[in-house]
Write a structure and sequence with these properties.
This is Aminotransferase-like plant mobile domain. Keywords: Aminotransferase, Transferase. With about 525 residues, this protein is mainly α. Helix content is about 40%, strand content about 10%. The protein contains 18 helices and twelve strands. The two termini are about 35 Å apart.
């Protein structure tokens, strides 16, 4: 990867360095558990099946090339062209690396907890590395009248194959029916197979009926928001895997864990960001997706657990996609200079996509809804990072979660940081005066999603009148100051659950030692 020369005009973003005692204590517990698990690593590895880690065979790649040559315009309109092409590249599995990283996962914050702070896989990673779109219809959207005819024919074929095979619609049977058939269903048949194996795979190697309407939408050029669904599935499976790792060495009964999410993303994410893990990636040919840099990259990381336990902030690449890579074009949301882009009817989808990536929301998957907290890792987007505060554990219904995720942002302005913005550490001792809290005047006047002087904003604060903005800004400032006071006084760990205070107003009258005792009692049963 070619390095980019940093110039004196580069703006620095700020990251809060964890320095609370319980954060250190909790991390030491994880280090001890990691040491014990390393002894059982082989047994642990054999107890887990990554069914979603699929390799494209020659037949699939041949079929994909044929369909791409015929339907590239439709795929680009639907936002899946790069995703389909990316799925034709093989990423060999490094199980030890994935397990070492998954052990750092916190199911509550949806982040990895390292000695120096938090980082996570975001919608940006799913979009850049796998090529899935963050925009479009939800994966549960039903087909409209124009797609009902194709849907009926596809369901008929699916049921016929199922009856012939007695139980499941297998990959082989599906390919035998549709590959090179030359009929009107070949295109949508290919998309069903691709979705079932490289977007939403199952451990039974079968074609799920739930995928059919998604394929019908895509075959007509309708854009679908596959990225949040893929990431929701990955978050859910990371939580399962972290729990499995946590209890493995303590349990007398060893159980098998089946995981279906796209864990190759976890591995490539680590390769892109941790300097100790990076081999020299392959050069890209013009038009190849970024994932091709790591194609057939064979690496066995036997010391991954030690690397993650002892990692330093300086060894972590906060914004790897802003570095120059030959034959890879920067998306428009990585500008050379910072931009403020007004939202209007003709705004480019790439800027709207960036707004989705930095918005606190809930991700709607095929069969799950997961929290998404980009504000906890704002430095990954070149922005100032929020002080860590308790997370909201309440989940919305599927429809409500999607409505919040897809909320219009018309009339606002999107702040796009420069790709030369540099993340750096700001001590926790003076966050109020050095970048973590905006002045009341700044907050009152701002209608910007993201800012070089602000936090990553929650979608619930969008689309307000100016008076509402002023009230919300004042409340937000007070809340943030309150959380920072608690952060200085308390011993909450990095992995936090939302536990309401018995009497928040009384906190100011307590001594430091009393506050520490109170929070130790509250959070004594919280582990990640």
């Amino acid at each position: 990867m070619a390095s980019r020369t940093e110039n004196s005009s580069s703006k620095r973003t700020h990251l809060s360095k964890p320095c609370l005692s319980s954060s250190i204590d909790g991390f030491e517990d994880r280090q001890n558990r990691s040491s014990a698990l390393s002894v059982h690593l082989k047994a642990l590895s054999t107890s887990i099946k990554f069914w979603g880690w699929r390799f494209p065979n020659k037949k699939f790649k041949s079929w994909a090339r044929k369909m791409a040559s015929l339907h590239e315009p439709i795929w680009r309109k639907a936002g899946i062209f790069e995703a389909v092409i990316a799925s034709t590249y093989k990423i060999p599995k490094d199980t030890d690396l994935v397990l070492g990283l998954a052990e750092k996962w916190c199911p509550d914050t949806k982040t990895f907890i390292f000695p120096w702070g938090e980082a996570t896989i975001t919608l940006e990673d799913v979009m850049v590395l796998l090529g899935f779109s963050v925009l479009g219809l939800p994966v549960f959207a039903t087909v409209d009248s124009s797609g009902k005819e194709i849907m009926a024919k596809l369901e008929k074929e699916w049921k016929k194959i199922k009856n012939d095979k007695v139980c499941l619609v297998t990959k082989l049977a599906w390919m035998e029916r549709f590959m090179n058939s030359g009929d009107e269903l070949e295109h949508v048949g290919f998309l069903v197979l691709w979705l079932s194996y490289f977007a939403f795979p199952s451990h039974l190697f079968h074609i799920s009926e739930a995928i059919l309407p998604v394929a019908v939408h895509l075959s007509s050029g309708t854009k679908m928001a596959l990225a949040p669904a893929v990431l929701a599935h990955l978050y859910a499976d990371l939580s399962l895997l972290q729990g499995h790792i946590r209890v493995f060495s303590e349990s007398l009964i060893k159980v098998q864990l089946d995981l279906n999410a796209l864990f190759k993303l976890v591995q490539v994410w680590a390769w892109e960001r941790f300097r100790e893990l990076q081999l020299k990636p392959f050069s890209l040919l013009r038009g190849e997706p970024r994932l091709a840099r790591w194609c057939d990259m064979k690496q066995s990381t036997s010391n991954a657990w030690r690397i993650f336990n002892n990692s330093k902030m300086d060894s972590f690449e906060w914004r790897p996609y802003t570095k120059t890579v030959k034959n890879w074009d920067f998306p428009r949301f990585y500008p050379e200079r910072a931009m403020r882009v007004p939202v209007g009817p003709n705004l480019d989808d790439e800027f709207i996509s960036f707004a989705r990536c930095i918005k606190v929301s809930e991700l709607v998957g095929i069969d799950s809804v997961e929290h998404y907290f980009p504000n906890r890792v704002a430095s990954q987007f070149g922005m100032r990072q929020d002080v860590h505060c308790p997370v909201n554990q309440k989940k919305l219904s599927r429809d409500a979660a999607w409505n919040d995720y897809d909320k219009p942002i018309d009339g606002l302005t999107i702040y796009i940081p420069s790709r030369s913005a540099i993340s750096c550490v700001t001590p926790m001792c003076e966050p109020q005066r050095k970048g973590f809290v905006e002045s009341d005047e700044t907050l009152k006047s701002r209608t910007i999603i993201g800012d070089d002087t602000s936090f990553v904003t929650s979608g619930s604060k969008m689309n307000r009148t100016s008076e509402d903005e002023m009230k919300i800004a004042e409340n937000s400032t007070n809340k943030r100051r309150k959380y920072m006071k608690q952060a200085h006084r308390s011993t909450m760990g990095l992995c936090q659950k939302q536990v309401p205070s018995d009497n928040d107003e009384d906190d100011d009258s307590l001594t430091v030692s009393q506050v520490m005792v109170r929070y130790k009692k509250k959070y004594s049963d919280i582990k990640c």
